[in-house]
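User: Structure tokens for this complex, please. No commentary.
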Amino acid sequence: SERPYVIDEMISAKAIAARIEELCVAIREEFRDTDKLVVVGLLRGSFVFIADLVRELDLPVEVDFLEASSYGDSMESSREVRILKDLRGQIEGRDVLVVEDIVDTGHTLKHVVGLLESRNPGRLRTIALLDKPSRRETDVTADWIGFSIPDEFVVGYGIDYAQRNRNLPYIGKVRFPDS
Ligand code: PRP
Ligand code: MN
Ligand code: MG
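Assistant:
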């Protein structure tokens, strides 16, 4: 991971904010009768997206987190999803929105949805800021997607490369100049 790289901006902070506004119109409509929606962020990558999303959503929500990890520090999915931290609250009978930063192979989202479905929630919906359909190895898609992107290694807005660059306010793509 110490090979030198540069980051080119791909989706600006402004474009992300505008897209979140649009997505929230649809999500508000879907959950307008829900008493208190459980918004579940998948750590660590979704922490920035969920923060912006729940503030724009303006619905009664409970915020909970689940930590799943498949990449570690590598650029390649391990395809083995580990639950490192489970939800704090119960979701049985409750409406749930799972928030993911990116769906790549789909193993993470598929595993988490299966786990949460087994707890008999009410409506379970999923949202991902980014989707890389060309990399899919499973049959999942998020119910709402911010941006569909080509097969580029992206960072920023919560997404890391070897635990760095999560704090970039925009989505950038990693480029290795010497290759
Ligand atoms: C990344 C990303 C998604 C997942 C997507 O998480 O944040 O959760 O991989 O990949 P997949 O569709 O191929 O499963 P990672 O495992 O790197 O953990 P992190 O969120 O803590 O960075
Ligand atoms: Mn993640
Ligand atoms: Mg990661």
